[in-house]
Protein: mannan endo-1,4-beta-mannosidase
Amino acid sequence: MAIKSSFVLAALALLPFVSAQQSVYSQCGGIGWTGGTTCVAGTTCTVLNSYYYQCLPSSSTTSKSSTTTSSHPTTSSPPPTTTPTTTASSTSSAPSSTVTGYVKTSGQKFTLNGADYVVAGTNAYWLAQQTDADIDTAFADIAAAGLTTVRTWGFNDVTTAQTYGAYYQLWTNGTATFNTGAYGISRFDSVVAKAKAHGLRLIVALTNNWSDYGGMDVYVSQLNSGGTHDTFYTNAKIIAAYENYISEFVGRYVNEPGIMAWELANEPRCSGSTGSASSACDTTGSTIATWAKTISTYIKSIDPNHLVAIGDEGWFQEANPPTYPYAPGVGINFVTNLAISTLDFGTFHSYPESWGQSANESAWGVQWIIDHASAQKSANKPVLLEEFGVTTNQTGIYTQWWNTVISSGLTGDLIWQAGSQLTNGASPNDGYAVYPTGTVYPIMESAAAALKVRG
Ligand SMILES: *[C@@H]1O[C@H](CO)[C@@H](O)[C@H](O)[C@H]1NC(C)=O
Ligand SMILES: *[C@@H]1O[C@H](CO)[C@@H](O)[C@H](O)[C@H]1NC(C)=O
Ligand SMILES: *[C@@H]1O[C@H](CO)[C@@H](O)[C@H](O)[C@H]1NC(C)=O
Ligand SMILES: *[C@@H]1O[C@H](CO)[C@@H](O)[C@H](O)[C@H]1NC(C)=O
Structure:
Protein backbone atom coordinates (compact mmCIF):
# COMPACT_ATOMS: atom_id res chain seq x y z
CA MET A 1 0.00 0.00 0.00
CA ALA A 2 2.95 2.34 0.49
CA ILE A 3 3.52 4.85 -2.24
CA LYS A 4 6.92 4.52 -3.83
CA SER A 5 7.54 8.24 -3.69
CA SER A 6 10.45 8.42 -1.29
CA PHE A 7 12.31 5.84 -3.34
CA VAL A 8 11.56 7.74 -6.52
CA LEU A 9 12.78 10.99 -5.00
CA ALA A 10 15.99 9.36 -3.87
CA ALA A 11 16.59 8.08 -7.40
CA LEU A 12 15.80 11.49 -8.83
CA ALA A 13 18.44 13.18 -6.71
CA LEU A 14 21.08 11.04 -8.39
CA LEU A 15 20.14 11.99 -11.93
CA PRO A 16 22.80 13.94 -13.81
CA PHE A 17 21.01 17.26 -14.38
CA VAL A 18 24.11 18.99 -15.68
CA SER A 19 25.25 16.67 -18.39
CA ALA A 20 25.95 16.76 -22.08
CA GLN A 21 23.94 13.58 -22.39
CA GLN A 22 20.18 13.36 -22.01
CA SER A 23 19.02 11.30 -19.05
CA VAL A 24 16.51 8.47 -19.27
CA TYR A 25 13.02 9.68 -20.37
CA SER A 26 14.38 13.08 -21.39
CA GLN A 27 13.69 14.61 -24.79
CA CYS A 28 16.48 14.03 -27.31
CA GLY A 29 15.07 15.46 -30.54
CA GLY A 30 12.04 16.47 -32.56
CA ILE A 31 10.82 19.50 -34.48
CA GLY A 32 11.90 22.67 -32.71
CA TRP A 33 14.18 20.85 -30.27
CA THR A 34 17.50 22.62 -29.69
CA GLY A 35 18.80 20.62 -26.71
CA GLY A 36 21.07 17.60 -26.56
CA THR A 37 20.49 14.63 -28.82
CA THR A 38 22.73 12.01 -27.17
CA CYS A 39 21.23 9.67 -24.58
CA VAL A 40 23.03 8.29 -21.52
CA ALA A 41 24.34 4.73 -21.63
CA GLY A 42 21.65 2.07 -21.53
CA THR A 43 19.07 4.27 -23.26
CA THR A 44 18.25 4.90 -26.91
CA CYS A 45 16.91 8.05 -28.53
CA THR A 46 13.51 6.85 -29.79
CA VAL A 47 11.17 8.72 -32.14
CA LEU A 48 7.76 8.89 -30.42
CA ASN A 49 6.45 11.41 -32.91
CA SER A 50 7.94 14.10 -35.12
CA TYR A 51 7.86 16.58 -32.24
CA TYR A 52 9.19 14.33 -29.54
CA TYR A 53 12.12 11.95 -29.41
CA GLN A 54 12.83 10.44 -26.03
CA CYS A 55 15.69 8.56 -24.32
CA LEU A 56 14.09 5.19 -23.51
CA PRO A 57 15.73 2.22 -21.79
CA SER A 58 17.43 0.12 -24.48
CA SER A 59 16.10 -3.14 -23.07
CA SER A 60 12.34 -3.45 -23.09
CA THR A 61 12.59 -5.53 -19.92
CA THR A 62 14.20 -2.72 -17.95
CA SER A 63 12.18 -1.79 -14.91
CA LYS A 64 10.90 1.72 -15.42
CA SER A 65 9.45 2.39 -12.03
CA SER A 66 12.50 3.78 -10.31
CA THR A 67 13.28 6.68 -12.59
CA THR A 68 9.93 7.79 -13.91
CA THR A 69 9.99 11.26 -12.43
CA SER A 70 13.02 12.45 -14.33
CA SER A 71 12.28 15.90 -15.65
CA HIS A 72 12.22 16.95 -19.27
CA PRO A 73 14.65 19.68 -20.22
CA THR A 74 11.97 21.55 -22.16
CA THR A 75 10.28 22.70 -18.98
CA SER A 76 12.12 24.20 -16.08
CA SER A 77 10.07 22.63 -13.37
CA PRO A 78 12.52 21.93 -10.53
CA PRO A 79 12.74 18.52 -8.93
CA PRO A 80 10.46 18.06 -5.95
CA THR A 81 12.08 19.34 -2.78
CA THR A 82 9.45 18.48 -0.22
CA THR A 83 9.11 15.01 1.15
CA PRO A 84 5.50 13.99 0.50
CA THR A 85 3.50 13.19 3.59
CA THR A 86 3.04 9.52 4.19
CA THR A 87 -0.72 9.58 3.96
CA ALA A 88 -0.87 5.90 3.16
CA SER A 89 0.16 4.94 6.66
CA SER A 90 -2.31 7.26 8.37
CA THR A 91 -5.35 5.90 6.64
CA SER A 92 -8.14 5.44 9.10
CA SER A 93 -9.55 2.36 10.68
CA ALA A 94 -10.97 0.96 7.45
CA PRO A 95 -10.34 -2.74 6.86
CA SER A 96 -6.95 -3.55 5.39
CA SER A 97 -6.90 -3.28 1.63
CA THR A 98 -7.64 -6.19 -0.63
CA VAL A 99 -6.67 -4.13 -3.66
CA THR A 100 -3.79 -5.93 -5.34
CA GLY A 101 -2.81 -6.52 -8.96
CA TYR A 102 -3.55 -4.43 -12.04
CA VAL A 103 -6.73 -4.37 -14.08
CA LYS A 104 -6.08 -5.68 -17.60
CA THR A 105 -8.27 -6.35 -20.62
CA SER A 106 -9.22 -9.59 -22.33
CA GLY A 107 -11.30 -9.07 -25.44
CA GLN A 108 -14.28 -6.94 -24.42
CA LYS A 109 -13.82 -7.60 -20.68
CA PHE A 110 -11.65 -6.20 -17.94
CA THR A 111 -9.79 -8.75 -15.85
CA LEU A 112 -8.07 -8.69 -12.49
CA ASN A 113 -5.82 -11.43 -11.16
CA GLY A 114 -7.36 -13.87 -13.61
CA ALA A 115 -11.03 -13.09 -12.87
CA ASP A 116 -13.51 -10.67 -14.45
CA TYR A 117 -13.30 -7.07 -13.22
CA VAL A 118 -16.69 -5.41 -13.51
CA VAL A 119 -16.78 -1.64 -13.92
CA ALA A 120 -19.93 -0.57 -12.10
CA GLY A 121 -18.87 2.90 -11.20
CA THR A 122 -19.36 6.56 -10.62
CA ASN A 123 -17.65 9.87 -11.14
CA ALA A 124 -16.63 12.10 -8.24
CA TYR A 125 -14.30 14.70 -9.73
CA TRP A 126 -14.03 16.69 -6.49
CA LEU A 127 -12.47 14.06 -4.20
CA ALA A 128 -8.95 15.48 -3.95
CA GLN A 129 -10.34 18.88 -2.96
CA GLN A 130 -11.78 17.42 0.27
CA THR A 131 -10.38 16.62 3.70
CA ASP A 132 -9.32 13.07 4.53
CA ALA A 133 -12.46 12.55 6.60
CA ASP A 134 -14.71 13.66 3.74
CA ILE A 135 -12.83 11.53 1.19
CA ASP A 136 -13.46 8.59 3.52
CA THR A 137 -17.17 9.41 3.72
CA ALA A 138 -17.48 9.64 -0.06
CA PHE A 139 -15.74 6.32 -0.69
CA ALA A 140 -17.70 4.64 2.10
CA ASP A 141 -20.99 5.63 0.43
CA ILE A 142 -19.79 4.51 -3.00
CA ALA A 143 -18.48 1.18 -1.72
CA ALA A 144 -21.68 0.56 0.23
CA ALA A 145 -23.63 0.88 -3.04
CA GLY A 146 -21.61 -2.04 -4.42
CA LEU A 147 -19.67 0.01 -6.96
CA THR A 148 -16.12 -0.98 -7.88
CA THR A 149 -14.64 1.99 -9.72
CA VAL A 150 -14.49 5.77 -9.32
CA ARG A 151 -13.43 8.27 -11.99
CA THR A 152 -11.83 11.44 -10.70
CA TRP A 153 -9.61 14.37 -11.72
CA GLY A 154 -5.84 14.04 -11.61
CA PHE A 155 -5.27 17.66 -12.58
CA ASN A 156 -5.59 21.16 -11.25
CA ASP A 157 -3.46 23.80 -12.91
CA VAL A 158 -3.35 27.16 -11.22
CA THR A 159 -1.58 30.45 -11.77
CA THR A 160 -1.77 31.50 -8.10
CA ALA A 161 -0.82 29.18 -5.25
CA GLN A 162 -3.73 28.22 -3.01
CA THR A 163 -3.83 27.10 0.61
CA TYR A 164 -6.83 24.79 0.44
CA GLY A 165 -7.87 21.72 -1.53
CA ALA A 166 -5.32 20.42 -4.01
CA TYR A 167 -3.48 21.68 -7.07
CA TYR A 168 -0.69 19.88 -8.88
CA GLN A 169 0.91 22.49 -11.12
CA LEU A 170 1.59 26.15 -10.45
CA TRP A 171 2.24 28.10 -13.63
CA THR A 172 4.39 31.24 -13.64
CA ASN A 173 5.46 32.95 -16.84
CA GLY A 174 5.28 29.78 -18.89
CA THR A 175 6.95 27.54 -16.33
CA ALA A 176 5.06 24.81 -14.50
CA THR A 177 6.13 23.69 -11.04
CA PHE A 178 4.82 20.35 -9.83
CA ASN A 179 3.32 20.79 -6.38
CA THR A 180 4.80 18.55 -3.73
CA GLY A 181 3.67 20.83 -0.92
CA ALA A 182 0.87 20.44 1.58
CA TYR A 183 -1.91 21.18 -0.96
CA GLY A 184 -0.26 19.21 -3.71
CA ILE A 185 0.19 15.64 -4.83
CA SER A 186 0.06 14.31 -1.26
CA ARG A 187 -3.67 15.05 -1.40
CA PHE A 188 -3.99 12.70 -4.34
CA ASP A 189 -1.95 10.11 -2.41
CA SER A 190 -4.75 10.33 0.14
CA VAL A 191 -7.44 9.78 -2.48
CA VAL A 192 -5.64 6.66 -3.72
CA ALA A 193 -5.02 5.30 -0.22
CA LYS A 194 -8.61 5.82 0.83
CA ALA A 195 -10.04 4.35 -2.36
CA LYS A 196 -8.04 1.20 -1.66
CA ALA A 197 -9.10 1.16 1.97
CA HIS A 198 -12.68 0.85 0.68
CA GLY A 199 -11.77 -1.75 -1.95
CA LEU A 200 -12.23 0.70 -4.87
CA ARG A 201 -10.10 1.51 -7.92
CA LEU A 202 -9.66 4.82 -9.74
CA ILE A 203 -9.86 5.99 -13.34
CA VAL A 204 -7.86 9.21 -13.41
CA ALA A 205 -8.13 11.91 -16.08
CA LEU A 206 -4.91 13.92 -16.46
CA THR A 207 -6.24 17.16 -17.94
CA ASN A 208 -9.50 18.78 -18.93
CA ASN A 209 -10.94 20.14 -22.14
CA TRP A 210 -12.94 22.50 -19.99
CA SER A 211 -11.24 25.32 -18.13
CA ASP A 212 -12.44 24.04 -14.74
CA TYR A 213 -9.37 23.26 -12.66
CA GLY A 214 -7.12 24.80 -15.27
CA GLY A 215 -6.99 22.22 -17.99
CA MET A 216 -5.79 22.62 -21.55
CA ASP A 217 -6.43 26.33 -21.73
CA VAL A 218 -3.82 27.03 -19.04
CA TYR A 219 -1.16 25.21 -21.06
CA VAL A 220 -2.20 27.21 -24.14
CA SER A 221 -2.20 30.59 -22.42
CA GLN A 222 1.12 29.90 -20.69
CA LEU A 223 3.02 28.38 -23.61
CA ASN A 224 1.27 29.60 -26.75
CA SER A 225 -0.30 32.86 -25.75
CA GLY A 226 -3.04 33.89 -28.16
CA GLY A 227 -3.22 30.40 -29.66
CA THR A 228 -6.52 28.57 -30.06
CA HIS A 229 -7.72 25.80 -27.72
CA ASP A 230 -6.74 23.06 -30.18
CA THR A 231 -3.06 24.02 -30.19
CA PHE A 232 -2.98 21.97 -26.99
CA TYR A 233 -2.89 18.94 -29.30
CA THR A 234 -0.17 20.10 -31.69
CA ASN A 235 2.15 22.70 -30.14
CA ALA A 236 5.52 21.03 -29.41
CA LYS A 237 6.16 23.00 -26.22
CA ILE A 238 2.70 22.15 -24.91
CA ILE A 239 3.08 18.45 -25.71
CA ALA A 240 6.43 18.40 -23.93
CA ALA A 241 4.97 20.23 -20.92
CA TYR A 242 2.00 17.88 -20.72
CA GLU A 243 4.32 14.88 -20.94
CA ASN A 244 6.42 16.39 -18.20
CA TYR A 245 3.31 16.63 -16.03
CA ILE A 246 2.47 13.03 -16.86
CA SER A 247 6.00 11.94 -15.95
CA GLU A 248 5.50 13.46 -12.49
CA PHE A 249 1.91 12.38 -11.87
CA VAL A 250 1.78 8.98 -13.56
CA GLY A 251 5.40 8.25 -12.61
CA ARG A 252 4.45 8.51 -8.95
CA TYR A 253 1.85 5.75 -9.20
CA VAL A 254 3.41 3.27 -11.64
CA ASN A 255 3.29 0.46 -9.04
CA GLU A 256 -0.05 1.47 -7.55
CA PRO A 257 -2.86 -1.14 -7.81
CA GLY A 258 -5.42 1.45 -6.66
CA ILE A 259 -5.26 3.04 -10.12
CA MET A 260 -7.29 1.20 -12.78
CA ALA A 261 -6.57 3.49 -15.73
CA TRP A 262 -5.24 6.84 -16.91
CA GLU A 263 -7.20 9.06 -19.24
CA LEU A 264 -5.61 11.52 -21.63
CA ALA A 265 -8.20 14.24 -21.03
CA ASN A 266 -11.75 14.80 -19.94
CA GLU A 267 -13.84 15.36 -23.08
CA PRO A 268 -11.22 16.56 -25.55
CA ARG A 269 -12.58 18.57 -28.47
CA CYS A 270 -11.08 20.82 -31.12
CA SER A 271 -13.25 23.75 -30.37
CA GLY A 272 -14.54 26.17 -27.86
CA SER A 273 -18.17 26.53 -26.87
CA THR A 274 -18.97 28.64 -29.93
CA GLY A 275 -18.59 25.51 -32.00
CA SER A 276 -15.82 27.05 -34.07
CA ALA A 277 -12.47 25.31 -34.22
CA SER A 278 -9.16 26.50 -35.54
CA SER A 279 -8.95 25.37 -39.15
CA ALA A 280 -5.82 23.41 -38.24
CA CYS A 281 -7.83 21.00 -36.08
CA ASP A 282 -9.48 18.23 -38.09
CA THR A 283 -13.08 18.20 -36.91
CA THR A 284 -13.51 14.67 -38.22
CA GLY A 285 -10.88 13.35 -35.84
CA SER A 286 -7.33 13.02 -37.14
CA THR A 287 -5.75 15.81 -35.03
CA ILE A 288 -6.97 14.46 -31.72
CA ALA A 289 -6.30 10.87 -32.86
CA THR A 290 -2.65 11.74 -33.57
CA TRP A 291 -2.36 13.45 -30.21
CA ALA A 292 -4.00 10.48 -28.48
CA LYS A 293 -1.47 8.12 -30.04
CA THR A 294 1.41 10.33 -28.95
CA ILE A 295 0.30 10.77 -25.36
CA SER A 296 -0.89 7.19 -24.84
CA THR A 297 2.44 5.89 -26.23
CA TYR A 298 4.21 8.18 -23.81
CA ILE A 299 2.19 6.94 -20.83
CA LYS A 300 2.83 3.32 -21.79
CA SER A 301 6.56 4.10 -22.02
CA ILE A 302 6.72 5.18 -18.38
CA ASP A 303 3.93 3.02 -16.96
CA PRO A 304 3.50 -0.47 -18.39
CA ASN A 305 1.14 -1.48 -15.57
CA HIS A 306 -1.97 0.61 -16.10
CA LEU A 307 -4.65 0.83 -18.76
CA VAL A 308 -5.01 3.97 -20.88
CA ALA A 309 -8.08 5.51 -22.54
CA ILE A 310 -8.93 8.90 -24.01
CA GLY A 311 -11.80 10.03 -21.76
CA ASP A 312 -13.78 11.44 -24.69
CA GLU A 313 -17.51 11.75 -25.26
CA GLY A 314 -17.59 8.98 -27.88
CA TRP A 315 -18.78 10.93 -30.93
CA PHE A 316 -19.30 9.00 -34.14
CA GLN A 317 -18.48 10.32 -37.61
CA GLU A 318 -21.20 8.80 -39.75
CA ALA A 319 -21.90 9.73 -43.34
CA ASN A 320 -25.66 10.05 -42.75
CA PRO A 321 -25.93 10.94 -39.08
CA PRO A 322 -29.42 10.40 -37.61
CA THR A 323 -28.72 13.04 -34.94
CA TYR A 324 -25.95 15.53 -34.16
CA PRO A 325 -23.80 13.29 -31.87
CA TYR A 326 -23.35 10.85 -34.77
CA ALA A 327 -21.27 13.44 -36.69
CA PRO A 328 -20.91 16.58 -34.59
CA GLY A 329 -17.66 17.82 -36.11
CA VAL A 330 -15.91 18.43 -32.78
CA GLY A 331 -12.80 16.40 -33.56
CA ILE A 332 -13.50 12.89 -32.23
CA ASN A 333 -14.04 9.73 -34.23
CA PHE A 334 -14.92 7.02 -31.72
CA VAL A 335 -14.54 4.10 -34.11
CA THR A 336 -11.10 4.99 -35.44
CA ASN A 337 -9.81 5.98 -32.00
CA LEU A 338 -10.88 2.60 -30.62
CA ALA A 339 -8.47 0.95 -33.07
CA ILE A 340 -5.42 2.77 -31.65
CA SER A 341 -3.20 0.04 -30.19
CA THR A 342 -1.99 2.06 -27.19
CA LEU A 343 -5.55 2.73 -26.05
CA ASP A 344 -6.94 -0.17 -24.03
CA PHE A 345 -10.63 0.71 -23.96
CA GLY A 346 -13.15 3.17 -25.34
CA THR A 347 -15.27 5.70 -23.47
CA PHE A 348 -18.45 7.61 -24.23
CA HIS A 349 -20.75 9.99 -22.41
CA SER A 350 -24.49 10.60 -22.68
CA TYR A 351 -26.03 14.02 -22.10
CA PRO A 352 -29.05 14.17 -24.41
CA GLU A 353 -30.30 17.43 -22.90
CA SER A 354 -27.06 19.20 -23.81
CA TRP A 355 -26.89 17.55 -27.21
CA GLY A 356 -30.24 18.60 -28.67
CA GLN A 357 -32.06 15.36 -27.78
CA SER A 358 -34.27 16.57 -24.92
CA ALA A 359 -37.49 15.61 -26.66
CA ASN A 360 -36.43 11.98 -26.92
CA GLU A 361 -33.80 11.49 -24.27
CA SER A 362 -34.54 8.03 -22.98
CA ALA A 363 -34.88 6.33 -26.38
CA TRP A 364 -32.04 8.34 -27.86
CA GLY A 365 -29.75 7.24 -25.00
CA VAL A 366 -30.79 3.61 -25.40
CA GLN A 367 -29.75 3.68 -29.06
CA TRP A 368 -26.51 5.53 -28.20
CA ILE A 369 -25.60 2.70 -25.78
CA ILE A 370 -26.52 -0.01 -28.32
CA ASP A 371 -24.44 1.66 -31.03
CA HIS A 372 -21.36 1.89 -28.79
CA ALA A 373 -21.82 -1.73 -27.69
CA SER A 374 -21.78 -2.64 -31.36
CA ALA A 375 -18.52 -0.71 -31.93
CA GLN A 376 -17.14 -2.50 -28.86
CA LYS A 377 -17.85 -5.87 -30.46
CA SER A 378 -16.28 -4.86 -33.77
CA ALA A 379 -13.11 -3.61 -32.08
CA ASN A 380 -13.11 -6.42 -29.49
CA LYS A 381 -12.07 -3.97 -26.78
CA PRO A 382 -13.95 -2.93 -23.63
CA VAL A 383 -16.12 0.20 -23.83
CA LEU A 384 -17.50 2.19 -20.91
CA LEU A 385 -20.44 4.55 -20.68
CA GLU A 386 -18.27 6.59 -18.35
CA GLU A 387 -20.50 9.64 -17.79
CA PHE A 388 -24.21 10.06 -18.16
CA GLY A 389 -26.82 12.41 -16.85
CA VAL A 390 -30.33 13.71 -17.30
CA THR A 391 -32.13 16.16 -15.05
CA THR A 392 -35.70 14.95 -15.55
CA ASN A 393 -37.19 11.51 -14.89
CA GLN A 394 -33.83 10.23 -13.67
CA THR A 395 -35.20 7.02 -12.16
CA GLY A 396 -37.11 6.05 -15.30
CA ILE A 397 -34.39 6.95 -17.77
CA TYR A 398 -31.47 5.54 -15.80
CA THR A 399 -33.36 2.28 -15.23
CA GLN A 400 -33.86 1.96 -18.96
CA TRP A 401 -30.22 2.85 -19.70
CA TRP A 402 -28.81 0.45 -17.09
CA ASN A 403 -31.01 -2.32 -18.47
CA THR A 404 -29.63 -1.51 -21.91
CA VAL A 405 -26.03 -1.58 -20.67
CA ILE A 406 -26.64 -5.09 -19.39
CA SER A 407 -28.64 -6.39 -22.36
CA SER A 408 -26.39 -4.85 -25.03
CA GLY A 409 -23.24 -6.42 -23.61
CA LEU A 410 -21.62 -3.02 -23.03
CA THR A 411 -18.63 -3.60 -20.75
CA GLY A 412 -19.59 -1.23 -17.95
CA ASP A 413 -20.70 2.22 -16.82
CA LEU A 414 -20.03 5.09 -14.44
CA ILE A 415 -22.80 7.50 -13.51
CA TRP A 416 -22.19 11.25 -13.31
CA GLN A 417 -22.04 11.58 -10.34
CA ALA A 418 -22.05 10.23 -6.79
CA GLY A 419 -22.81 12.62 -3.97
CA SER A 420 -22.30 12.42 -0.22
CA GLN A 421 -23.10 14.47 2.83
CA LEU A 422 -19.74 15.93 3.80
CA THR A 423 -18.70 17.83 6.92
CA ASN A 424 -19.82 21.18 5.52
CA GLY A 425 -22.88 19.94 3.64
CA ALA A 426 -23.62 18.14 0.42
CA SER A 427 -20.82 17.44 -2.06
CA PRO A 428 -20.89 19.55 -5.27
CA ASN A 429 -24.15 19.20 -7.20
CA ASP A 430 -24.27 20.32 -10.82
CA GLY A 431 -27.83 19.08 -11.15
CA TYR A 432 -26.79 15.47 -11.71
CA ALA A 433 -25.49 14.41 -8.27
CA VAL A 434 -27.18 11.41 -6.66
CA TYR A 435 -27.08 11.04 -2.88
CA PRO A 436 -27.52 7.93 -0.69
CA THR A 437 -30.90 9.16 0.54
CA GLY A 438 -32.19 9.92 -2.96
CA THR A 439 -34.35 7.88 -5.34
CA VAL A 440 -31.64 7.03 -7.88
CA TYR A 441 -29.24 5.46 -5.37
CA PRO A 442 -31.15 2.21 -4.78
CA ILE A 443 -31.56 1.73 -8.54
CA MET A 444 -27.83 2.33 -9.00
CA GLU A 445 -27.16 -0.37 -6.38
CA SER A 446 -29.43 -2.87 -8.15
CA ALA A 447 -27.85 -2.06 -11.50
CA ALA A 448 -24.35 -2.63 -10.08
CA ALA A 449 -25.44 -5.96 -8.62
CA ALA A 450 -27.03 -6.99 -11.92
CA LEU A 451 -23.93 -6.04 -13.90
CA LYS A 452 -21.76 -8.13 -11.56
CA VAL A 453 -24.07 -11.11 -12.11
CA ARG A 454 -23.88 -10.65 -15.88
CA GLY A 455 -20.07 -10.19 -15.75
C1 LIG B 1 7.11 37.15 -14.93
O1 LIG B 1 7.36 38.05 -16.01
C2 LIG B 1 7.17 39.40 -15.67
C3 LIG B 1 7.32 40.24 -16.92
O2 LIG B 1 8.46 39.86 -17.63
C4 LIG B 1 8.17 39.79 -14.58
O3 LIG B 1 7.96 41.15 -14.20
C5 LIG B 1 7.97 38.91 -13.37
O4 LIG B 1 8.96 39.18 -12.39
C6 LIG B 1 8.04 37.44 -13.76
N1 LIG B 1 7.67 36.64 -12.61
C7 LIG B 1 8.38 35.61 -12.21
C8 LIG B 1 7.91 34.93 -10.96
O5 LIG B 1 9.37 35.21 -12.79
C1 LIG C 1 -13.89 22.51 -24.50
O1 LIG C 1 -13.12 23.60 -23.99
C2 LIG C 1 -13.51 24.85 -24.47
C3 LIG C 1 -12.52 25.85 -23.94
O2 LIG C 1 -12.45 25.81 -22.53
C4 LIG C 1 -14.93 25.14 -24.07
O3 LIG C 1 -15.32 26.40 -24.57
C5 LIG C 1 -15.84 24.04 -24.62
O4 LIG C 1 -17.15 24.25 -24.18
C6 LIG C 1 -15.36 22.69 -24.16
N1 LIG C 1 -16.18 21.67 -24.74
C7 LIG C 1 -16.36 20.44 -24.24
C8 LIG C 1 -17.67 19.96 -23.89
O5 LIG C 1 -15.52 19.64 -24.05
C1 LIG D 1 -35.97 8.67 -30.58
O1 LIG D 1 -34.70 8.05 -30.71
C2 LIG D 1 -34.78 6.73 -31.25
C3 LIG D 1 -33.38 6.16 -31.19
O2 LIG D 1 -32.46 6.97 -31.84
C4 LIG D 1 -35.33 6.77 -32.65
O3 LIG D 1 -35.42 5.46 -33.14
C5 LIG D 1 -36.69 7.41 -32.63
O4 LIG D 1 -37.14 7.58 -33.93
C6 LIG D 1 -36.62 8.78 -31.95
N1 LIG D 1 -37.95 9.31 -31.81
C7 LIG D 1 -38.23 10.57 -32.12
C8 LIG D 1 -39.63 10.98 -31.89
O5 LIG D 1 -37.40 11.34 -32.53
C1 LIG E 1 -39.60 8.16 -17.55
O1 LIG E 1 -38.82 7.32 -18.39
C2 LIG E 1 -39.34 6.03 -18.58
C3 LIG E 1 -38.32 5.25 -19.38
O2 LIG E 1 -38.14 5.82 -20.63
C4 LIG E 1 -40.70 6.11 -19.27
O3 LIG E 1 -41.23 4.82 -19.42
C5 LIG E 1 -41.62 6.97 -18.44
O4 LIG E 1 -42.83 7.16 -19.12
C6 LIG E 1 -40.98 8.31 -18.15
N1 LIG E 1 -41.82 9.05 -17.23
C7 LIG E 1 -42.16 10.30 -17.44
C8 LIG E 1 -42.99 10.95 -16.38
O5 LIG E 1 -41.83 10.92 -18.44
User: Anything to note?
Assistant: Residues 14-76 form one domain. Residues 110 and 117 are 5 Å apart (CA to CA).
